Amino acid sequence: MQTVTVEWRHLDKDGVTCDRCAETGSGIKELVQQMDAECRPSGVRIQFTETRLNAAKIGQSNLILINGVALEEVLPQTEVSTSPCCSCGELIGKETSCRTIVRFGRIHEAIPQHLVREAICAVARCCS
Against a cut of 0.70, is the pTM above it? Predict the structure, then answer.
């Protein structure tokens, strides 16, 4: 059985993350469960792993890796940007900007399930 690992990295301060990471996290956990059930009959297991980051690694927060490759590298016409994040600023005690994904000119602060699904499908080749 082939295994596709989906890693989600995010800021974690005393068990709390920022609003945009929280939205990404809840969506990705749900999606991985759905896709694992969908892909298993094709011999593909979708596995989720979560990496909690401290403030020193905030530049990696809300990063999604599919088999070790960043989502923006898997999906064509996708790039990384940043935007101010008040929620992270409150958690770490200073103004900060956080990672965003830009696809087809649209900025995503929280990474939507449909982009994660598209990236998993591109790697796993078990879905449409």
Answer: yes
